Amino acid sequence: MVPQEEITWASVHRGPDVLVRTPRLKRRGAARGTGRDGSRTVAADTGGFEDPSAEVLTEAAAAFGLLASSARLHIVWALAQGESDVTHLADRVGGALPAVSQHLAKLKLAGLVRSRREGRRQIYFVDDPDVVTVVRVMVGQLSARAEGVSASVHRLRGTGG
Fold first, then answer.
1. Are residues 85 and 32 in the same domain?
2. What's the CA gap between 32 and 30, in Å, rounded?
3. What whole-number distance in Å separates Cα of residue 28 and Cα of residue 50?
4. 47 with 71, same domain?
5. What is the pLDDT of residues 19-75, one digit of tens each?
6. Do 124 and 92 belong together in one domain?
7. Do 34 and 107 lie in a common domain?
8. Domain assignment present for 9
9. d(CA 17, CA 29)
10. pLDDT band with cut points at 50, 70 and 90 for residue 101
11. What is the pTM of this model?
């Protein structure tokens, strides 16, 4: 039997009230667990990965929920390009300073954004390459689709594109 990769989770604290769980992969035989009734279970072969727990899915949904706001997604996108203070971020994303500051506070609490002090300014950045990758892939794919749809519409209308 080909060994499966099992995801185990290591907890990392990122602030006083924020617990972030990071995945670690281990090579093993069939993944085993205990069902609700106490019986032993063996995971089906799902491409080498066991389904994540309800807790992990809830945490992931919460993180994606934060990124479901176009304003917060724009902020994370901007920070994925490079660090910035709140004033420059507000100018870049076209938001009011207090609103951008509140969005940053939520993103920071969730561990998606970090900050450091430089003199009187707070500099924000995304230091988790996985967050940057997820945002860049999603925005890139949607941009490519939009360009493809736009080019198709132009071809249908006979206007070039």
1. no
2. 6
3. 12
4. no
5. 545 444 444 444 445 555 555 544 445 566 789 999 999 988 988 888 889 999 999
6. yes
7. no
8. yes
9. 36
10. very high
11. 0.60
